[in-house]
Design a protein that fits this description.
heterodimer; A: four-stranded antiparallel β-sheet; 10 helices; globular; disordered N terminus; B: mainly alpha; MetI-like fold; 78% helix; flat; transmembrane helix (chain B)
């Protein structure tokens, strides 16, 4: 497996990790991030650093703020306080600059969100021509390469509704990759899929992780967390409770909250 | 039947007048409505206010009053144009408020995730709206836009009261010449039907071609 950056721990025991943190090249940094939905404090003083090449899996009970965490990173949700830094640049307000930064951070959604009126090929090519200003032939060529990579080269001319959920999600991953992003955010990418389609999507994600893509993955797939993640971030009630290696987290969770969560999901 | 054959050129003139008013005002209404709908969903607050004020003022003003305001008001500010152009302005602006709301409801039928996906790929607001949201909204707004334009065709009759040549106004000279009022109006109605049914047919074709829910 190629080099994937160091394992960092952002907000727990500082001394223990000080050595490793020096070596890390942080790509995504969240500092004291707070977000409210009305009175609901969904993100509470979140501190998280994701190094270049790192795969961070975010798990936790529903309503714990993990999806919101994922969505604030490319500002699909605004935050009330704190700072988010991407590749050394603070996340700007709405406008051209923000669009430029978003192009660097791909996002894969739970509900795929493929453009329903465009073919699979056009879905992958659209933003390449509009944002990266590639010529149509060049964009289509890259799209076909990426579709080949996710195993869907033969579906290029179909419309999203003609594909299965797993196929749609793989197209969505190809679409995000087409922008040559520095990082990918996955917001529960397999939660809307039939069990037999989950694996084909996870397989693509595992390959990306192995190739050194920086990934933040919100998921309930513990198998993926164990096998592909550098770090597991456990969230509950808007706070990061634990931030550790998968091995350490799954074998010996430190907090009661995490123990309780794991006992519920690993039982069956 | 005589009333039509004997006064065909009068009818034709009126028919063409109504047709012109309808076509030009429709184009203006579609363009303005499109701009205002973009304003109403824009991420910039001041644009949203402009859109909301435009819609609420025009939609809530009686069309006749609007004609008075445009035809009698604007010349006072030194803007003197042919009456037909004034009528197109009044009709077009009035209808644009309805078109705007139809487009906005169409935009609301497009799932939020479509726009989010486009934005997450780095597309700007205009690109997101133009390449992703509106093409999908377009499909669901074809029928109501057809209705709005048919209403516009019929509303154009008000222009006749402001000495613009149009179809309904032809009854006046015909009446003075002593023709039967019933047959005069029957042929006027046929003229309107030709225009409105053509609009219906056009939008049926558009719906067949584009209105497919995939």
């Amino acid at each position: 497996m190629p080099f994937r950056g160091w394992i960092v721990c952002a907000d727990l025991d500082t001394d223990k990790w000080a050595g490793q943190r020096m070596a890390v090249d942080p790509l995504i940094e969240l500092r004291d991030v707070n977000k409210y939905y009305g009175n609901l404090h969904v993100l509470q003083d979140i501190n998280l650093t994701v190094g270049r090449g790192e795969v961070v899996v975010v798990i936790g009970p529903s309503g714990s703020g993990k999806s919101t965490l994922c969505r604030v990173i490319n500002r699909l949700e605004t935050i009330e306080s704190g700072s988010i830094v991407l590749d050394g640049h603070p996340l700007p307000d709405e406008g051209k600059e923000l669009a430029g930064l978003r192009a660097e951070v791909g996002m894969v959604f739970q509900s795929f969100n493929l453009f329903a009126h465009k073919t699979v090929l056009a879905n992958v090519s659209l933003a390449q021509t509009k944002v990266r200003k590639r010529k149509k032939e060049e964009a289509d060529k890259r799209s076909r390469e990426l579709l080949e990579r996710v195993g869907l080269a033969d579906q290029a001319d179909k419309y999203p509704a003609q594909l299965s959920g797993g196929q749609q999600q793989r197209v969505a991953i190809a679409r995000a990759l087409a922008m040559n992003p520095q990082a990918l955010l996955f917001d529960e990418p397999t939660s809307a899929l039939d069990p037999e389609m989950i694996n084909e999507v996870l397989e693509v994600m595992r390959r990306l992780a192995a190739e050194g893509m920086t990934m933040v993955v919100v998921t309930h797939e513990m198998g993926f967390a164990r096998s592909a993640a550098n770090r597991v971030v456990f969230m509950a009630d808007g706070k990061i409770i634990e931030d550790r290696t998968p091995e350490a987290f799954f074998t010996a969770p430190e907090s009661d909250r995490a123990r309780d969560f794991l006992s519920k999901i690993l039982k069956h | 039947m005589d009333v039509l054959t004997e006064n065909f050129s009068l009818y034709a003139k009126g028919f063409l007048g109504t047709l012109e008013l309808t076509v030009y005002a429709s184009l203006l209404a579609l363009a303005l409505g499109f701009v205002m709908a973009s304003f109403r969903v824009a991420p910039i607050g001041s644009l949203r206010v402009v859109g909301a004020v435009w819609v609420n003022v025009l939609r809530n003003t009686p069309l006749t009053l609007l004609f008075f305001a445009v035809l009698l008001g604007l010349p006072r500010f030194g803007l003197v144009l042919p009456f037909q152009l004034f009528a197109v302005l009044a009709l077009g602006c009035y209808t644009s408020a309805f078109i705007c709301e139809v487009l906005r409801s169409g935009i609301n039928t497009v799932p939020k995730g479509q726009g989010e996906a486009a934005r997450s790929l780095g597309m700007s607001f205009t690109q997101t709206l133009g390449a992703v949201v509106l093409p999908q909204a377009f499909r669901s707004v074809i029928p109501p836009i057809g209705s709005t334009l048919i209403a516009l065709a019929k509303n154009s009759a008000i222009a006749g009261a402001f000495s613009v040549t149009e179809l309904l106004g032809t009854y006046k000279p015909l009446n003075e010449m002593g023709y039967s009022i019933i047959w005069t109006f029957v042929w006027i109605a046929v003229g309107y039907l030709i225009i409105t049914l053509s609009i219906s047919a056009l939008f049926n074709v558009l719906e067949k071609r584009w209105g497919v829910a995939r």
